[in-house]
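We were asked to recover a plausible sequence for a given structure. The inputs and outputs are reproduced exactly as logged, with field labels preserved.

PROBLEM: sequence recovery
POSITIONS: 199
GIVEN STRUCTURE:
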């Protein structure tokens, strides 16, 4: 009977994985909040390229998944509020967005003023990251950290070419680039492809 108790205990310890939005929605939420990949990565304790992977189709698991889902739920709640009449509180005090939405009755004028502050947020996304000129023409502005010509370093990731390929931290296959100090492929397709060759 004790064998079944151990099994019951194991089954009770399993918790369902929190649901995550689609990868495109994840990136959209981060960009609408004006957060860089590096900021999200630092908060969750991962590298910026891991956040890139999550925004291109990979899914985190375990405790990281729960933390990432919590962040995305908070961002979704913040940006879903412009459709509701009680949306002026998150703009006035971002730290108390949930409490402000519940307490503020929302005047009729709040609906017309809320979309105006929200629309500049995506436009201001490039300001905390590298200049927009670095992405379209990486050859014209080489930097020591980005001696290869990948355009993926435009989000503030520290991308460097490796002289000798090292095992990718995500898939274990040889990678020719280092992102934020970790050897990784710059393209998720190179990580998942069975016959991927290093770039």
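RECOVERED SEQUENCE:
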């Amino acid at each position: 009977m004790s064998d079944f108790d151990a099994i019951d205990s194991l089954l009770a310890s399993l918790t369902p994985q929190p649901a995550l939005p689609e990868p495109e929605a994840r990136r959209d939420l981060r960009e609408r909040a004006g957060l860089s990949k590096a900021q999200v990565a630092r908060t969750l304790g991962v590298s910026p390229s891991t956040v890139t992977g999550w925004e291109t189709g990979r899914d985190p698991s375990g405790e990281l998944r729960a933390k990432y889902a919590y962040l995305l739920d908070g961002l979704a709640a913040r940006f879903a509020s412009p459709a509701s009449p009680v949306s002026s509180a998150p703009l006035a005090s971002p730290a108390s967005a949930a409490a402000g939405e519940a307490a503020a009755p929302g005047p009729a004028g709040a609906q017309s003023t809320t979309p105006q502050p929200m629309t500049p947020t995506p436009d201001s996304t490039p300001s905390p990251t590298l200049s927009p000129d670095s992405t379209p023409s990486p050859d014209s502005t080489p930097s020591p950290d980005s001696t290869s010509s990948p355009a993926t370093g435009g989000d503030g990731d520290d991308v460097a070419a490796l002289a000798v390929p090292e095992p990718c931290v995500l898939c274990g296959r040889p990678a020719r680039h280092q992102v934020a100090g970790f050897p990784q492929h710059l393209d998720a397709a190179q990580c998942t492809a069975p016959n991927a060759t290093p770039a």
